[in-house]
Design a protein that fits this description.
The protein is 38% helix and 16% strand. By secondary structure, the chain is an alpha/beta fold. The strands form 3 sheets. Strands 4, 5, 6, 7, 8, 9, 10, 11, 12 and 13 form a 10-stranded mixed beta sheet that branches. It has a 3-stranded antiparallel beta sheet with strand order 1-2-3.
Length: 380
């Protein structure tokens, strides 16, 4: 079997690819650097010249060749490599007639626990949304703690330390009181606090026993993240923007997180994500795959989730339900009371719908940052 082509398929805010072979089998992948998809497309065109004529089964070799050939690193390059890696695993599974999880060690579970994000920003609205999710069968939700990401400017209270921290705490308190004890709260801080704010906030919500504190501060300094982790009993989760396995190893060495968040469409695909899961297992850490993307990302995550013993919970994008994205694939994911059933079809288990670009016109996200009350840049 030889690779004969690489087709780029933009749709909505996503970038998918289809790698074809001379035996009529194709594989589908997705890129993760959603802010720079035009750049990813350029890298994919460059990588295509290498892939043509190659045996798609040599996934690890191709991964290393592309990763090590030009010396450069970065999120755009790794997102392109991620899409290719996922597509090659899809081809191999289809060619052998098995789901990808069989090639990763076999199935550890039949379905995966999932959660949705709560894109509400007042305590009352957040609590009501959590109750609605619980009524639908979910037993976990991700709270967007640090404010409305759609606003262009933060209000004055966001610059007042006590007001800011107390406001965050009130959101968690309201949600816990609304859903009771049989429901997990995931606190998404979106990299928008400093260490002092993060520790004060964490201590203020420890009594509500959240599942984890996600990216309380920017992930650039493992040492600073470790300081936050040491300052609270709430486990820290991070890793969604990491682009190599060494970043995860450093986080584990520093004891900076107990939950790791590899993004299969940003880290380099399923190949390095499986390695991160093994590293985490050796350190008694759990895996919560980052997944803010399209259905190919979700499908790849499910294959990983099925094959690792230390899986915790799966992020399920709210856009899938609210943006009719089930129509992006020929068959929707099977959902059962907050769980997603692992697809058993060969490969990653899904196929993109025909005429996808026409049905979901491309609309790459624009560059935007929220400004503070004083006119500076504000992280939210």
């Amino acid at each position: 079997m030889k690779i004969t082509g690489l087709e780029i398929i933009p749709a909505s805010k996503y970038l998918f690819i289809r790698i074809s072979t001379d035996e009529g089998i194709h594989g589908t992948g997705e890129a993760g650097a959603w802010g720079f998809l035009d750049g990813v497309e350029g890298v994919l065109r460059r990588f295509e010249s290498y892939l043509l004529g190659k045996n798609p089964f040599q996934i690890e070799h191709h991964w290393n060749y592309l990763y090590r050939s030009m010396y450069f690193r970065g999120s755009v390059i790794m997102s392109a490599l991620s899409a290719i890696d996922i597509a090659l695993w899809d081809i191999k599974g289809k060619a052998l007639g098995v789901p990808v999880y069989e090639l990763l060690g076999g199935k550890c579970r039949d379905k995966v626990r999932s959660y949705e994000a709560v894109f509400c920003y007042t305590p009352e609205e957040m609590a009501e949304f959590c109750v609605n999710l619980k009524q639908k069968g979910y037993d976990a939700a991700r709270l967007m703690i640090t404010g409305d990401i759609t606003r262009t400017q933060a209000d004055r209270s966001s610059g007042i330390y006590n007001s800011k921290v107390e406001g965050y705490i009130e959101r968690v308190r309201a949600c816990r009181e609304a859903v009771g004890r049989d429901f997990d709260l995931i606190l998404e801080c979106h990299r928008s606090m400093d260490p002092c704010e993060a520790i004060a906030f964490a201590k203020g919500v420890e009594a509500y026993r959240p599942l984890f504190l996600e990216d309380p501060i920017p992930p650039d300094s493992p040492e600073a993240m470790a300081d936050v982790a040491k300052g609270t009993s709430i486990p820290v989760a991070t890793g969604e923007r990491f682009i190599n396995i060494q970043e995860f190893e450093t986080i584990l060495q520093k004891r900076a997180a107990r939950y790791l968040r590899p993004d299969v469409c940003a880290l380099g695909g399923l190949t390095p994500s499986k390695k991160v899961a093994a590293m985490a297992e050796a350190n008694y850490a759990k895996i919560v795959p980052h997944n803010p993307l399209g259905p190919v990302s979700t499908a790849a995550c499910l294959q990983l989730d099925a094959a690792i013993p230390n899986f915790a919970i799966q992020e399920f994008p709210s856009f899938y339900h609210q943006g009719n994205e089930a129509e992006m694939t020929t068959e929707p994911f099977r959902e059962e009371d907050g769980y997603i059933v692992i697809p058993d079809a060969p490969g990653i288990g899904i196929e993109l719908a025909k005429d996808l670009t026409e049905k979901f016109p491309p609309r790459q996200r624009s560059i935007s940052a929220q400004t503070a009350y004083d006119g500076g840049v504000y992280d939210v």
